[in-house]
Specification:
This protein is of the alpha+beta class. The protein is built from 9 helices and 15 strands. It folds into 2 domains: 174 residues; 131 residues, Gcn5-related N-acetyltransferase (GNAT) (Aminopeptidase), CATH 3.40.630. It is elongated and about 75 Å long.
């Protein structure tokens, strides 16, 4: 368990904040909070092999407020935010992450915490939805009939990557998937003869953590409004539960009423709002963050030397100590890092 260190200067405790990088999965899972649907992407990063491709920073004020920032690498770079906005802002000031990334998990109030360090382009507010095996309502296996023909439904293989990219291009989406992207994931598609016309897949699958995130759902424009997206999403959800996942999660535009209703019919329940955006770090070289980290580490080391050995937090050798600047009235949550 984390041990608090005494505060040793005259500044109010709530204006000081400790930041450290953690590789303790138990500590990280607890810090991410009880809303597993909101935290599904980040929880999955705690499972191998994702764990080795992600870095996790925790921050804690003396008043107990906490925040978590995760920078992960998969098919792209992603950033995930949890907790108190002021703490998140202070962590990002020290560890803003890569120059370009995708904001995959953030609460609406975290947008203010991002402004000092990032441009958030094209932010959208999605709705997390989730279901468990006991709540899931699979689609009856009656076949998919279109114009008298029966469409086949099956899991995609690596050899289907060309058909997958062709479908995403037809829908105006990304079309850079490779065999390596499909093999470890779960993709199910509906085929009209040899033509892939609808697909659903997964962003992450983490059986050890018990979560799976459904996504990349798309139906060819000529085949829409026929229930295909519902069927392929149901197939992926069932495959997740068969693999041992206990919570299936997806994100949906709350204004997309047909999609929301389709997911509701499958047993998905409404969860928290989640903001997604394309992130561009303001500092091209990261020199400012490097200087902040240097000062924060020196502060932490000075306090560590002044602390009796028995009271030191030995499990945080790279701890950083941040002083928070008070904000003007009406400013964003928390305070900027000094």
């Amino acid at each position: 368990m984390t041990r608090a260190m005494p505060w040793r200067d005259a500044r109010p405790a709530a204006e000081r904040l400790r930041v450290w990088e953690s590789r303790d999965a138990v500590e990280l899972e607890a810090a991410m909070g009880a809303d597993r649907a909101y935290g599904a992407y980040a929880l999955a990063q705690l499972d191998p092999p994702h764990f080795g491709r992600a870095r996790f920073w925790l921050g804690e004020r003396a008043d107990g407020a906490r925040g978590v920032v995760v920078h992960a690498r998969g098919t792209g770079r992603s950033t995930l935010l949890f907790g108190d906005s002021g703490v998140v802002e202070a962590i990002l000031a020290l560890h803003p992450g890569p120059r370009l990334a995708y904001l995959a998990t953030a609460a609406p109030e975290h947008l203010a915490a991002l402004r000092p360090t990032h441009h958030a382009a094209d932010p959208v507010t999605m709705r997390r939805m989730h279901t468990a095996p006991a709540d899931f309502c699979p689609v009856p296996d009656a076949g998919v009939h279109i114009d008298g023909d029966v469409l086949s439904l099956r899991r995609l293989l690596g050899t289907d990557v060309a058909a997958l990219n062709a479908l995403y291009r037809a829908g105006g989406g990304p079309s850079h998937y490779t065999t390596r992207d499909i093999a470890p994931a779960l993709y199910w598609g509906a085929f009209d003869d040899a033509r892939l016309v609808s697909v659903a897949g997964t962003h992450v699958v983490a059986p050890e953590r018990g979560v799976g995130v459904v996504g990349n759902v798309l139906t060819h424009p000529a085949y829409r409004s026929r229930g295909l997206a519902t069927r392929v999403t149901a197939a992926v959800t069932a495959a997740l539960f068969a693999r041992g996942v206990s919570l299936a999660v997806l994100s949906v535009d709350p204004e997309n009423t047909p999609a929301v209703r389709a997911y509701e019919r499958l047993g998905y329940e409404h969860g928290a709002p989640v903001v997604e955006a394309r992130l561009l770090r303001r500092s091209a070289l990261g020199a400012r963050a490097w200087w902040r980290r240097l000062r924060a580490r020196r502060r932490a080391e000075a306090e560590r030397r002044a602390t009796p050995v028995a009271e030191r937090c030995a499990d945080r050798p790279s701890e950083e100590l941040v002083k928070l600047r008070p904000r003007e009235p009406g400013g964003a949550h928390g305070g900027g890092a000094a």
